[in-house]
Design brief:
- This protein is globular.
- A 7-stranded mixed beta sheet has the order 1-14-13-12-15-10-11. Strands 2-17-16-20-18-19 form a 6-stranded mixed beta sheet, with no helix packed on it.
- The chain is of the alpha/beta class and about 450 residues long.
- The longest helix is centred in the C-terminal third of the chain and has 15 residues.
């Protein structure tokens, strides 16, 4: 039996340029990059130098605060550059890939007979622990903590998101190995959420509690599912793992190799042929973008991730460690004269004042990055509550973060939120406040002061 979760509050942003269900091999990237900034709150300690030779799975750096948490190379090759920023901060580790890939052999592990310590040790030494995150604080999980439950969202509801039902087809063995292993790391349940009317390979796995989700975005966000299934209270911890990362974990356990392969959706209205590519974590985005109608030096924004939560990257940038989508949309650097004073038919809005998107609910829009307004103080309109399905007061928790009231942040439910949970409130905010950044800074303050 599965549990049905129906989300009523939210907003589906229908955009042009969804990826067709066609998968190709991306052009093999010559260079790969691993950025410590992808791992929030991690202070990296390097173990490699420029000129060093590495195999796929060899350690590049570890977390200075916890040396057991390691971060490994996605490919074999030579370390060619380690650029640094202010105060000698490590910006990335750049690797020139070998033509023939070699892998560090961690050995196979029988997940049915292995105990929790053996599984945890294998995930830590192989770098796969980086895929296990925790709430509270939305950071890489502390290995010494036992979570009350583990959550996996196999349903992506964000605009133009990769179709996980399609991407994960044929990966049942890897998925089963991963969830069996993770099940031994918690005293509670492994919750897997799938689309109610979907056809997910995860729905048939054993050892899981299946939840079928329906409703508008952010129904696919793991934070929404945690809130509706088993909320996080003070003193409690839950872990989260993304569905594609389960495949990497499962392949490690079955083969002994760290295989950082990703199936990435290339989407967006600026893409001529939106579709899926097989590539590797940290690859050059140019290997997928510029043969698909996107011009070098053109007036487009390339985003590693979705349009609400992704990171803008340059044309010579790299796929980040966790993304399974590259979105390309027009850059919004235009100004619409007297745009506030005339009817609008080509923009998405939750308001019916001067905007008419509500008349065509199935229309797909070609939106650019223009915010259509300027930053100002918060205006109380009630629109946040319309798109925010968590049992939390969004305006109040944002303000508590801004004036750094830790007691109020605790009382309002800060332990169970992550920046992505506020992506929609940021999208509809008439004050153009950076909600995700506010929440991230609030979480960092709590992590520093409370731990």
């Amino acid at each position: 039996m599965s549990n049905d979760i129906k989300i009523k509050k939210g907003l589906d942003i229908k955009l042009q340029g969804a990826a067709e269900k066609v998968t190709e091999n991306a052009i093999i990237s010559n260079f790969y990059s691993v950025r410590p900034d992808d791992f929030h709150s991690v202070t990296p300690k390097l173990v490699v130098k420029v000129g060093a030779k590495v195999k796929a799975g060899d350690v590049l750096f570890y977390n200075k605060a916890n040396e057991d948490v390691k971060f490994v190379s996605p490919v074999s090759g030579e370390i060619v550059e380690i650029p640094r920023g202010a105060k000698r901060k490590i910006l990335s580790v750049k690797i020139q890939a070998d033509k023939e890939q070699t892998f560090k052999d961690f050995g196979t592990l029988n997940v049915d007979s292995a105990n929790a310590d053996a599984i945890k040790s294998r995930l830590l030494e192989s770098g796969c622990w980086a895929f296990v995150k925790q709430r509270p604080y939305d950071v890489i999980a502390k290995p010494e903590v036992t979570p009350k439950a583990i959550f996996v969202s196999a349903y992506a509801s964000a605009p133009l998101a990769a179709d996980l039902d399609y991407v994960l087809q044929g990966k049942e063995a890897e998925l089963q190995a991963a969830v069996t292993a993770l099940g031994k790391l918690t005293n509670g349940k492994v919750h897997v959420s799938v689309a109610k009317n979907g056809n997910s390979p995860l729905a048939g796995l054993s050892g899981i509690t299946l939840n079928k989700v329906s409703g508008p975005h952010p129904s696919g966000n793991v934070g929404t599912q945690i809130n509706k299934i088993d909320p996080v209270n003070k003193g409690e911890t839950v872990w989260t793992v993304s569905a594609q990362d389960l495949v990497i974990i499962g392949e490690l356990l079955l083969t002994g190799k760290f295989s950082a392969k990703r199936t990435v959706a290339l989407a967006g209205s600026s893409v001529k042929k939106p579709r899926y590519f097989k590539t590797v974590i940290g690859s050059e985005v140019a290997t997928m973008v510029f043969d698909n109608g996107v011009e070098k030096g053109g007036n487009d924004r390339i985003i590693s991730g979705d349009v609400l939560t992704g990171l803008q990257v340059k044309a010579d940038g790299y796929l980040d460690y966790y993304s399974n989508i590259i979105t390309v949309i027009p850059e919004g650097d235009d100004y619409e004269f007297f745009g506030w004073n005339k009817p609008v038919f080509n923009k998405v809005s939750t308001s019916r004042a001067m905007t008419f998107s509500w008349l065509t609910p199935n229309k797909k829009y070609d939106l650019n990055t223009n915010t259509n307004g300027e930053h100002r103080n918060f205006v109380t309109t009630g629109t946040f509550e319309e798109v925010f399905p968590l049992d939390i007061y969004p305006m109040q928790i944002l303000k508590a973060c801004m004036y750094e009231d830790l007691d109020e942040m605790e009382a309002l439910g800060m332990y169970e939120v992550a920046p992505e949970d506020f992506a929609l409130t940021e999208f509809v905010c008439v004050s153009k406040q950076p909600h995700q950044d506010i929440i991230r800074k609030g979480l960092d303050l709590m992590l520093k002061e409370i731990g």
